[in-house]
């Protein structure tokens, strides 16, 4: 009870935690499902068919108060309090984190889409702004302390453990030449475990020793202390699991890859053996950015008490207390008490730059920034960190050496290895081997079942992969399961295509020799009538005279109607009675003068009527869309124009669009062109021959009135129909 009460009263929390997992490992391209914990986008377009985590664990501790020769700590008889080197400050901090990943897996659901499902147990604790001088003074208890008077300030500590069930989705968002972007999102269900926290506000502590009786020394304090937890830890020796303590969390991230040699990996050129190049690294530089652990856990039964700790207590009072809450309630004034608290996740931003220096050698720069305030009550967070990691990686082996600056514990150097299904490493093991004042240590270890994407094998190089090739050592087409086709008669027509497999013949006759069945000197392969003799000029067929007018169909312009030789076998008609025979009449059904090839001429009156009708076609302001408001009138105008134009089947008309000079000239030009085209298409849809129409836009280049007045501009916004001449 003694040291626990002292930790509360003095806010001298001499151990706490907030650190990262899998340092040096997670940015490996073969990290698999572990990488999703730091950036969910990383699993898209990965080199795995699937990756199954059996079990993995990562732990880390750092602080800026105690320094030790780490590997001496485990020796028998080691006295931590005496042999550690303390570096007290007015504001000391300590860090630690434990992260256990249970059965988890990732797999591709489509070429550009990937899912991951993971289970995870985590423990994060934080203490900030602890007066290290005070910790040093009372580390052996008040009865061993000398007189002191310290401003403990406003220290803040929290600890939280919870479980996660996560679902991650990642996909390729953009792919264009050398640019490749992927994104990912993780949704997590959170099950609360144990939660406790303590926060001081303007706490001062003074101790006056009694040399005759150390137990009679007095501790004088003032300020406020808030303490809370998911249960009463003093009253309950066993933890009561609260299934209602739950919440939700989210991670999201982006990864951009620069692929300067993208042409080598163009899927349009990929053969089946290439397996879409999914086994290869395709980037020179990779940039990643993610935000993780957005969310919170609601501890509905958490007890929150705030005390005014102004008062005087003795060592004997501390020793006599049964539990911390009874001690506080007996000797100090409770200011407030409530129930239920939301505990945030350690939200953080992660950035990552990976450079493929040469073949399988990489250099990675990555870092973390905590997004949680140091003054937040019951706030858990990670430490700010920057790591530079050279590594060598291949499908079954990776070796990496992370060099890290970690908040509070400073620089540390580690090493790790991935070998087949196992990986183990530490971000601090090398520096801890030589340092006599290590302030941080971490490790990670795991076992998984990786199933990699790989290039298929094609021994004979025929494009049929070995597992589908019936003749693996002899090239052959895929249609014959990778075996060559036979050619028995040697005519270069394979037996599968040869109608005469035992007799040579040309490819055109399916491997058989040609015949001349009708004896007209034309072989059947070029004889259009192979059973009836005919002249060569008619491809071996006799010339017909269908209408029996003595003019062979080849010379008869009207092969089904008897006619005169001078009229090329056609009768002479004049259906419209305009004196122009139909055989030279461009408009045989509409009367017209001979000097216009039997078609009516376009008159000024006709053009004026077309002008009036076209002027009354209305559009939506600023658009090439016929106005709904004037829909009936516009449709009527178009019908009237159609009725006029059908009388001139050999005439060519232009639909011209014009605008006023308001707005951008280029936009006006495009608008005039589009409006002219809309009118033309509307007339064509009503039955006007497309060959009689063209469209053109002139923008504001041909005004008929001044653009300085609204009336003038209205006149200039027009559609015109212009006669161009005959077809």
UniProtKB/TrEMBL annotation:
It comes from Flavobacterium pectinovorum. Residues 606-727 form the OmpA-like domain. This is OmpA family protein. It is found in: Cell outer membrane. Its main location: membrane. It comes from the Bacteria. GO terms for cellular component: cell outer membrane. Keywords: Cell outer membrane, Membrane, Signal. Residues 1-19 form the signal peptide. One of its GO terms (biological process) is cell adhesion. GO terms for molecular function: calcium ion binding. Pfam families: DUF5723, OmpA, TSP_3. Residues 694-709 have a biased composition (Polar residues). Residues 694-714 are annotated as: Disordered.
């Amino acid at each position: 009870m003694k040291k626990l009460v002292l930790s509360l009263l003095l806010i001298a929390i001499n151990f706490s935690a907030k650190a990262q997992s899998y340092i040096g490992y997670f940015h490996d391209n073969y990290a698999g499902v572990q990488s999703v914990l730091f950036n969910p986008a990383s699993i898209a377009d990965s080199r795995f068919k699937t990756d199954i985590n059996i079990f993995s664990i990562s732990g880390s501790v750092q602080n800026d108060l105690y320094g030790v020769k780490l590997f001496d700590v485990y020796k028998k008889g080691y006295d931590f309090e005496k042999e550690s080197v303390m570096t007290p400050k007015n504001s000391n901090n300590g860090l630690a984190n434990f992260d256990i990943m249970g059965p988890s897996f990732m797999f591709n659901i489509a070429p550009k889409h990937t899912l991951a499902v993971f289970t995870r147990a985590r423990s994060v604790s934080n203490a900030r702004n602890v007066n290290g001088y005070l910790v040093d003074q009372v580390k052996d208890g008040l009865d061993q302390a000398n007189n002191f008077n310290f401003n403990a300030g406003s220290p803040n500590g929290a600890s939280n453990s919870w479980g996660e069930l996560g679902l991650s989705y990642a996909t390729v968002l953009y792919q264009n030449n050398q640019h490749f972007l992927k994104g990912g999102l993780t949704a997590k269900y959170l099950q609360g475990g144990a939660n406790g926290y303590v926060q001081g506000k303007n706490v001062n502590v003074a101790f006056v020793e009694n040399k005759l009786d150390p137990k009679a020394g007095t501790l004088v304090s003032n300020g406020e202390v808030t303490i809370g937890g998911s249960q009463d830890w003093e009253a309950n020796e066993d933890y009561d699991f609260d299934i209602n303590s739950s919440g939700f969390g989210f991670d999201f991230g982006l990864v951009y890859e620069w692929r300067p040699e993208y042409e080598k990996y163009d899927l349009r050129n990929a053969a089946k053996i290439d397996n879409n190049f999914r086994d290869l690294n395709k980037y020179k530089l990779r940039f990643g950015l993610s935000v993780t652990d957005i969310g919170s856990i609601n501890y509905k039964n958490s007890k929150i008490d705030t005390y005014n700790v102004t008062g005087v207590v003795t060592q004997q009072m501390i020793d006599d207390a049964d539990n911390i809450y009874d001690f506080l309630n007996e000797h100090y004034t409770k200011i407030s008490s409530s129930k239920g608290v939301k505990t945030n996740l350690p939200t953080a931003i992660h950035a990552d730059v990976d450079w493929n220096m040469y073949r399988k050698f990489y250099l990675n720069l990555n870092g973390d920034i905590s997004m949680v305030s140091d003054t937040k009550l019951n706030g858990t967070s990670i430490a700010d960190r920057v790591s530079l990691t050279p590594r060598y990686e291949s499908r079954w082996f990776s070796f990496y050496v992370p060099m890290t600056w970690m908040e509070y514990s400073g620089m540390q150097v580690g090493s790790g290895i991935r070998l087949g299904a196992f990986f183990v490493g530490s971000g601090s093991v090398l520096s801890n081997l030589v340092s006599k004042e290590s302030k941080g240590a971490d490790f990670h270890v795991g076992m998984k079942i990786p199933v990699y994407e790989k290039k298929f094998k094609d021994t004979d190089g025929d494009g049929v992969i070995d597992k589908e090739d019936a003749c693996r050592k002899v090239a052959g087409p895929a249609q014959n399961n990778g075996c060559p086709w036979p050619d028995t008669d040697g005519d270069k027509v394979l037996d599968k295509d040869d109608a005469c497999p035992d007799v040579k013949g040309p490819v055109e006759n399916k491997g058989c020799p040609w015949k001349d069945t009708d004896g007209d000197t034309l072989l059947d392969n070029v004889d259009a009538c192979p059973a009836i003799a005919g002249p060569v000029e008619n491809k071996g067929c006799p010339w017909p005279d269908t209408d029996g007018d003595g003019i062979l169909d080849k010379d008869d312009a009207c092969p089904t109607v008897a006619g005169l030789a001078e009229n090329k076998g056609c009768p002479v008609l004049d259906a419209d009675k305009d004196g122009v025979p139909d055989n030279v009449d461009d408009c045989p059904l509409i009367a017209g003068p001979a000097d216009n090839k039997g078609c009516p001429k376009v008159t000024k009156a006709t053009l004026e009527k077309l002008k009036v009708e076209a002027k009354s076609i209305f559009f939506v302001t600023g658009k090439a869309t016929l106005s709904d408001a004037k829909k009936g009138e516009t449709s009527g105008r178009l019908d009237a124009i159609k009725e006029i134009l059908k009388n001139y089947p050999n005439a060519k008309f232009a639909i011209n669009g014009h605008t006023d000079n308001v707005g951008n000239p280029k936009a006006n030009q495009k608008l005039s062109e589009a409006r002219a085209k809309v009118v033309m298409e509307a007339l064509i849809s009503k039955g006007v021959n497309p060959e009689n129409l063209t469209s053109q836009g002139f923008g504001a280049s041909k005004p008929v009135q001044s653009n300085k007045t609204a009336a003038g501009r209205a006149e200039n916004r027009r559609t015109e129909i212009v006669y161009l001449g005959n077809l």
